[in-house]
């Protein structure tokens, strides 16, 4: 659909076509706000539920659903149950765009929610702006969702720039590493991580000793690995998906190349750990933007403990994950915004309600704040290390210092 026609259809829709019956008369039992009825709020989501990023989308959605089912069991929000209408985009930008058009025009949704991935989410930003529809909680740290400022785009997590800046600082200052390469997915996601790494290195008058990429949806990494290996890079910043990054690590180790492999959060800790396997011991690090997804002591009520308990209740076959905890956080903020917005729900009212959130406690040392010019809730970056087939908190960077002979 061409943009002029799309804009016309969207304007007609937003003027209330969805609120009229076949005779053109207003339905008094229906809210004038799209996606809101007397007893239901409908949220629309496009995310990868199949394909090479399917684990990420599935975990994000289940984390969100765990909290929303809990809220619905308690009566919902101001007497309305929340329903997520989710479409699979397989991490494909054109499919995400088509899904979003369908959700906005025909899906009758109040807000967009829990999108996954940079190239997909960035693709729909013009639609979000044209429709003036809130987009809340995305599993991506893309800078394009933060600059330029868009009042309808509500981020929960820290950005990729923050992840890579913090990682580079540790690599350079704590480990004394100066030869750092970047392996990235050749799309908006990979470019974002590459730029973030370059900016961080520039603070130390450094730049990547090598840059290599792969095509999204493939595992064609051998040539890119070799390009990095011959430079003698001591650390590789990896901006990809779990399958490609696991393949890169495997190919590197087979070539007797064993640098520090650092991954950003989107790579997906649990799935990367499974694919690398427990029988090898490379130094694989990953930054996280949420705490460890484990329950605290009995009676603990921090967000991670809530997530673990509710996931076990509603999805007993699932294992808690960092990705799922992000989805759970997305739902916590969405519900808090809906609660504050009141019974007379509007899209602008939701945005104003989210702006009012200040020091919203999620657990010890973890709180969320928004404002009129602030659409990012969390700033903290955590680090984990692959040990024994799973990612555990990294508490001592000095323990990673390479000794003569390659030992740690």
From TrEMBL:
<dbReference type="Pfam" id="PF13458">
    <property type="entry name" value="Peripla_BP_6"/>
</dbReference>
<dbReference type="InterPro" id="IPR028081">
    <property type="entry name" value="Leu-bd"/>
</dbReference>
<feature type="domain" description="Leucine-binding protein">
    <location>
        <begin position="40"/>
        <end position="389"/>
    </location>
</feature>
<keyword id="KW-0675">Receptor</keyword>
<dbReference type="InterPro" id="IPR028082">
    <property type="entry name" value="Peripla_BP_I"/>
</dbReference>
<comment type="similarity">
    <text>Belongs to the leucine-binding protein family.</text>
</comment>
<keyword id="KW-0732">Signal</keyword>
<protein>
    <submittedName>
        <fullName>Extracellular ligand-binding receptor</fullName>
    </submittedName>
</protein>
């Amino acid at each position: 659909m061409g943009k002029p026609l799309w804009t016309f259809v969207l304007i007609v829709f937003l003027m209330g076509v969805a609120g009229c019956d076949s005779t053109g008369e207003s339905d008094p039992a229906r809210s004038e706000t799209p996606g809101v009825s007397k007893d239901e709020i409908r949220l629309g989501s496009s995310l990868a539920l199949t394909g090479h990023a399917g684990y990420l989308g599935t975990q994000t959605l289940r984390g969100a659903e765990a909290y929303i089912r809990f809220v619905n069991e308690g009566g919902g929000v101001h007497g309305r149950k929340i329903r997520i209408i989710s479409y699979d985009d397989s991490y494909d930008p054109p499919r995400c765009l088509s899904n979003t058009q369908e959700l906005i025009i025909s899906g009758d949704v109040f807000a967009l929610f829990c999108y996954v991935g940079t190239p997909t989410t960035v693709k729909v930003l013009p639609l979000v702006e044209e429709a003036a529809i809130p987009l809340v909680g995305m599993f991506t740290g893309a800078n394009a969702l933060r600059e330029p400022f868009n009042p309808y785009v509500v981020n929960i997590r820290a950005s990729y720039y923050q992840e890579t800046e913090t990682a580079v600082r540790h690599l350079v200052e704590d480990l004394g590493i100066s030869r750092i390469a970047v392996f990235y997915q050749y799309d908006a996601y990979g470019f974002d991580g590459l730029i973030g790494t370059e900016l961080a290195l520039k603070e130390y008058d450094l730049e990547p000793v090598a840059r290599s990429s792969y095509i999204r949806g493939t595992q064609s990494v051998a040539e890119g690995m070799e390009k990095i290996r011959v430079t003698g890079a001591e650390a590789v910043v990896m901006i990809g998906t779990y399958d490609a990054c696991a393949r890169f690590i495997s190919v590197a180790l087979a070539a007797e190349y064993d640098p520090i492999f650092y991954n950003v959060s989107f790579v997906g800790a649990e799935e990367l750990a499974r694919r690398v396997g427990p029988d090898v011991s490379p130094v694989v690090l990953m930054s996280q933007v949420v705490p460890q997804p484990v329950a605290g002591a009995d009676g603990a009520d921090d967000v991670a403990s809530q997530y673990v308990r509710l996931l076990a209740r509603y999805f007993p076959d699932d294992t808690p994950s960092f990705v799922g905890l992000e989805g759970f956080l997305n739902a916590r903020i969405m519900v808090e915004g809906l609660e504050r917005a009141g019974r007379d729900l509007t899209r602008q009212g939701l945005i104003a309600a989210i702006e009012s959130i200040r020091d919203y406690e999620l657990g010890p040392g973890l709180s969320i704040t928004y404002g009129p010019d602030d659409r990012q809730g969390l700033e903290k970056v955590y680090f984990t290390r692959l040990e024994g087939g799973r990612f555990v908190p990294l508490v001592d960077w000095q323990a990673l210092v390479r000794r003569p002979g390659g030992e740690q």
